[in-house]
Design brief:
This protein is α+β, with helices and mostly antiparallel strands and 542 residues long. It folds into 4 domains: 75 residues; 94 residues, PDZ domain (Pdz3 Domain); 198 residues, 2-enoyl-CoA Hydratase, Chain A, domain 1 (Alpha-Beta Complex); 108 residues, no CATH class. Helix content is 41%, strand content 19%. The chain has 20 helices and 21 strands. Strands 3, 4, 5, 6, 7 and 8 form a 6-stranded antiparallel beta sheet that branches. Helix 13 packs across helix 18. It starts with a helix and ends with a helix.
Length: 542
C-alpha cells in the first residue's frame, strides 16, 4: 500500500508540472474537467502499478515514469521534450555558458564506441592544455577502467566533468606513441563561448560565427564587434550556419545590434492567440552592408535573427533554406533536477511570417527529410522595401548557394583521417619536406603577434608537400589516379593547409583557410555591393 502511494505521489507531482501541457491538449483546446483528470490519473497509476508488480522483468519506477512523460510529449509536437537529470544539467550549462571539466571537444572514436577522440587542440590555459592533450588523442580509460562500452552522454561525459579543483585520471592513446599515457587532470571552470571565431576577411570585411544562442551571446557579440573596430568595417558577414538556436532573449540582443531603434524583431503568440511584440531597444549606430549565412541546420533563434534582418532589408540572406522551427518552448523544472521543454507559443517574423515546417504527417520526416519541396512555403509576404518573402518551410535565402561539391577521393581521405595523420607526421618531423613545419609547443606559445603573421605568410603547401602526400596515400593503399588527384588538387591542398594551421596556429586560423574554398562565403563577399544597394533603397522608401 505504501508502495502504491509513493507511485501515486510521483504521478501527482509530474501531473502538476504538466497540467498546462499534455492534459491541456493542442494549443487552443479546452482543458479537461477535474473529473476527467482524476479518471486519467487513476488509469495511469493503475497501469504503472500493474507493470511494476507483474511485468516479466523488474523495471525501475523512475524509468517507467520518464518513458511515460516522453510518450505524452511525442503526441504534441517535435520540440516538446523531457530532460533527464544529465540532459537537464547539460542544458543549464549551455544556458549559463560555462561548465567544470577539462576543456576538450570530443566525439566517439567510432560508432557505438565509448572511447572518445579529442577533435580540436585544447585552448591554452585549460586543464587539458596544461597536461598536453592533443587533437587526435583517444581517451580509453577513466580512473583505470576501460570505457569501450560506456555511454557517451550518461557515463563518459559525467565522469570527465566534476567540481572545480578535483582530479580525474585518464588513459590516453596517442598515434605514434608505443605506450598509453597516464594523465591526471585537475578540473576547472570552462567557458562555453557561443562566438569562438571572429576576424577580418581582407582589410575591412568583418566575419563572426555564432555557434548557438546562450545567455552570454549578446555580450560576446558586443565584445567581438568592438575588437573588430566596428566603425571602420566596410562590410560584415554573420555566419549562422549550423546554429540550432537557443535563448530568445539573446536572439533579441543580436538583432538589436544591427536593426534600427524601435523596429519589430519578432512576435510570439500563445494558445489563445495573444501576441507579444519584441522591438529593438537601442539599435545600431552603423549601416555597413551585411550578409547572413544560413543552412538547413540553422533553426529557432537563428531564424528569428535572419528573418528580422531579411524583413527589414538590413541584410541579404545567403546559403540554404533554414530548418523551419517557429515553436516557442518554455523550460519547466521538475522534481529530481529534471526538466520539461514545453511548446507554449509560435513566433512570427516582422512581416508576419510563420516559418514553421509542417510536422503533422511524421516527426521522422520532419527531422530527416530535407527536400526542397517541403522546405519552401507558398504564402507570400513583403519586406520593408517590398521584396517578396515566403512563410512556411523556414527562411528562404535571397540567394541560394550550396556549400560546394566534394569528390570521391576527398571523401575517402577524410573517412580514413589521412589529412590529419599526414600533417601530424609532417609536424613531428617524421616526413621531411622543403619547408620547416616542426615547432615545439613551447615555440608556439612564444610566438609574438608579428611572428605569427610571418609564419602564416610563410606556411604553404608546396609542390614538394603535395608530392609527399601522394606518396603517403600510396603507402596507405588509397586508390586514385593522377587525373583524380589533379581534379581534387585545390581542395586537397586547402585541406592539408587547414590541418597544418590547426596544429600550429589553432582553430581560428584553420577556419580562415577553410573559407578560401567556401562557396557560400565567397558568394557573400561578391554580394556585399548588392547589400549596400538594398540598404540605400530601403532608406529612400522610408
Amino acid at each position: 500500500m505504501q508502495n502504491r502511494l509513493g507511485i501515486f505521489l510521483i504521478i501527482t507531482i509530474l501531473t502538476a508540472a504538466l497540467m498546462g501541457g499534455w492534459l491541456g491538449g493542442p494549443l487552443g483546446a479546452t482543458p479537461p474537467s477535474e473529473a476527467d483528470t482524476d479518471r486519467l490519473l487513476k488509469v495511469f497509476s493503475e497501469a504503472l502499478a500493474a507493470i511494476r508488480e507483474h511485468y516479466v522483468e523488474p523495471i525501475p519506477t523512475e524509468e517507467l515514469v520518464e518513458s511515460a512523460v516522453r510518450g505524452m510529449l511525442r503526441t504534441l509536437d517535435p520540440h516538446s521534450s523531457f530532460f533527464s537529470t544529465s540532459d537537464y544539467n547539460r542544458l543549464q550549462e549551455e544556458q549559463r555558458g560555462r561548465y567544470y571539466g577539462l576543456g576538450i571537444s570530443i566525439r566517439p572514436e567510432s560508432p557505438g564506441s565509448g572511447r572518445v577522440m579529442v577533435t580540436e587542440p585544447p585552448v591554452p590555459g585549460t586543464p587539458a592544455y596544461k597536461v598536453g592533450l592533443r587533437a587526435g588523442d583517444v581517451i580509453s580509460k577513466i580512473e583505470g577502467e576501460p570505457i569501450d562500452d560506456w555511454d557517451l552522454n550518461e557515463e563518459v561525459i559525467p565522469k570527465l566533468k566534476g567540481p572545480k579543483g578535483t582530479e580525474v585520471n585518464i588513459t590516453v592513446e596517442r598515434p605514434g606513441e608505443p605506450e598509453p599515457l597516464e594523465l591526471t587532470v585537475v578540473r576547472d571552470e570552462i567557458p562555453m563561448y557561443s562566438i569562438k571565431y571572429f576576424f577580418r576577411i581582407g582589410d575591412d570585411i568583418g566575419y563572426i560565427d555564432i555557434d548557438r544562442f546562450s545567455e552570454t551571446t549578446g555580450k560576446e557579440l558586443a565584445e567581438a564587434l568592438e575588437k573588430l573596430d566596428e566603425k571602420s568595417l566596410k562590410g560584415f558577414i554573420l555566419d549562422l550556419r549550423g546554429n540550432p538556436g537557443g535563448a530568445l532573449n539573446q536572439a533579441l540582443a543580436v538583432s538589436d545590434r544591427f536593426l534600427s531603434n524601435g523596429q519589430v524583431i519578432v512576435v510570439t503568440k500563445d494558445r489563445n492567440g495573444q501576441g507579444r511584440e519584441f522591438r529593438t531597444q537601442q539599435g545600431s549606430q552603423y549601416d555597413y552592408p551585411m550578409v547572413v549565412l544560413i543552412d538547413e541546420n540553422s533553426a529557432s533563434a537563428s531564424e528569428i535573427v535572419s528573418g528580422a534582418l531579411q524583413d527589414h532589408d538590413r541584410a541579404l540572406i545567403v546559403g540554404e533554406t533554414s530548418f523551419g522551427k517557429a515553436l516557442v518552448q518554455t523550460i519547466y523544472p521538475l522534481e529530481g533536477n529534471k526538466g520539461l521543454a514545453l511548446t507554449t507559443g509560435r513566433y512570427y517574423t516582422p512581416s508576419n511570417r510563420l516559418i514553421q515546417r509542417d510536422y503533422s504527417s511524421s516527426f521522422y520526416d520532419y527531422f530527416n527529410s530535407r527536400q526542397e519541396t517541403t522546405q519552401r512555403g507558398t504564402e507570400t509576404h513583403y519586406t520593408d522595401s517590398g521584396r517578396t518573402v515566403f512563410a512556411g518551410g523556414g527562411i528562404t535565402p535571397d540567394e541560394k548557394v550550396g556549400r560546394g561539391s566534394s569528390t570521391r577521393l576527398i571523401r575517402v581521405i577524410e573517412r580514413e583521417r589521412l589529412f590529419a595523420e599526414f600533417v601530424d607526421d609532417l609536424t613531428k618531423g617524421e616526413i621531411q619536406s622543403d619547408i620547416r613545419y616542426q615547432f615545439s609547443p613551447e615555440e608556439r606559445l612564444a610566438f609574438t603577434p608579428e611572428e605569427r603573421e610571418q609564419l602564416i605568410a610563410q606556411l604553404a603547401i608546396t609542390d614538394e608537400t603535395t608530392r609527399l602526400f601522394k606518396t603517403f596515400l600510396d603507402s596507405h593503399q588509397v586508390d586514385f589516379t593522377d587525373q583524380s588527384f589533379e581534379e581534387s588538387r585545390r581542395l586537397i591542398e586547402n585541406k592539408l593547409k587547414q590541418k597544418l594551421f590547426l596544429v600550429l596556429l589553432g582553430p581560428q586560423e584553420s577556419l580562415k583557410v577553410s573559407l578560401e574554398v567556401d562557396q557560400q562565403v565567397l558568394r557573400a563577399l561578391e554580394l556585399l555591393p548588392k547589400a549596400t544597394a538594398l540598404i540605400q533603397n530601403n532608406l529612400v522608401k522610408q
